[in-house]
Amino acid sequence: MRTAISSLTLLEPRSLREALVMLRDEGPLTPLAGCTDVYVNFNFGTLPQKRFLNLWPLEPLRKIGMRGGVLSIGALATYALLIASTLVRRRLPILAAASREIGGAQIQNRGTIGGNVANASPAGDTLPVLAAAEAVLVLRSASAVRRVPFRSFYPAYRSTVMRPDELLVSIEIPPVAGRQWFRKVGTRAAQAISKVVMAAVRAPEPRIALGSVAPTVLRAVRTERALASGASIEEARRILMEEIQPIDDLRSTAAYRRQVCGNLLERFWKETA
Ligand SMILES: Cc1cc2nc3c(=O)[nH]c(=O)nc-3n(C[C@H](O)[C@H](O)[C@H](O)COP(=O)(O)OP(=O)(O)OC[C@H]3O[C@@H](n4cnc5c(N)ncnc54)[C@H](O)[C@@H]3O)c2cc1C
Description:
With about 270 residues, the protein is of the alpha+beta class. It is built from eleven helices and twelve strands. The protein has three domains: about 50 residues, Uridine Diphospho-n-acetylenolpyruvylglucosamine Reductase, domain 2 (2-Layer Sandwich); about 110 residues, Uridine Diphospho-n-acetylenolpyruvylglucosamine Reductase, domain 3; about 90 residues, CO dehydrogenase flavoprotein, C-terminal domain (Enolase-like, domain 1, 2-Layer Sandwich).
């Protein structure tokens, strides 16, 4: 069986510190969180890596709590935990909404927010939420911690600025003022990868983020600026069409995605008025 892990190496750290030392001294290692993305690649036989680092038992990385005024979400928090968290529901309800629409119960119990972010798919459903929330990603190595603004994390399609000796340990969400809005459009209501996903905040300076319409998650900054300065929604829609770069792929067409993006923008504006 192609997925037999016995022919592979799996390191089992007992603490974050041990995990970071293993990454430094015994790398390169591929971190495993819930394995819901990694296992798909095992199955397809498209995973070249042979040496893995199991993060799943590292309980402290699942913590969701407040640090000063900032909501801190451990990278290993599963969708089930995010949905159940009163802090998340109160401070960032669009993250709970996105989590509810990811996979089914099995994926929600295993899939982690850190895995969604580190996997760097432009279709990851939590990514537009984190972009609209102006999240900060906390990356740790054995010797240092650095905080990377979410907008600087993805330099190109399916790549991140994370180094091989670093782990994503938590995600910080500063207070978000304004009404939050989230919508995922897929082939069906559950177990579907997004054709288009949008998260937005209605504030004097609105924030609009989209997934599956560009090589990386997109903040529609020109559209945001137009709306902030009083442009009509029709004008904002026209600008949004210039900002997005959707493609035809097996899930949808560029033309359909364009139409849906424009419709979602209008719905966001109307429903949060
Ligand atoms: C049936 C099915 C349905 C799905 N539905 C959806 C959906 O609706 N929406 C959606 O967005 N996704 C969906 N997914 C994809 C997947 O479940 C999510 O992306 C999930 O959040 C991945 O998390 P994980 O913990 O399983 O990551 P893993 O598979 O363990 O890891 C994914 C990648 O991230 C890296 N990584 C993980 N954690 C860390 C860390 N802390 N630090 C550094 N690197 C790390 C790994 O090395 C790997 O490269 C689906 C997958 C399946 C199989």
